[in-house]
Amino acid sequence: MKNPQTITEAIPSAVKAVFDSMGSSNEFGIPSEIDTQKLAEYVCEQEVMQEALTKQVKAELEERRVFLEELSKMYFDEKKHYEDEIAEHEYSKAGVLG
To answer: N or C: which terminal CB in the chain sees fewer CB atoms within 10 Å?
Structure first.
């Protein structure tokens, strides 16, 4: 994403749409009279969307954490199993030879 050259370029397109719906604007794309109700509604919608996304990401991260925890447990259980088998084999081999 390129750096904005003007204030207008820095304003998100959704905010521009809200501003455009308010009527005439100055050279920076900012309306001479800002409808605070429309702007407040937009901000509220954005906060709700952000909260929903945050909950979704947290849930996905928790799922991944649980999966990795289970995978790690399986790995260490298998490792222990193979180590026990090797030790048992070495013990029986030593008993046969000794």
So the answer is: N
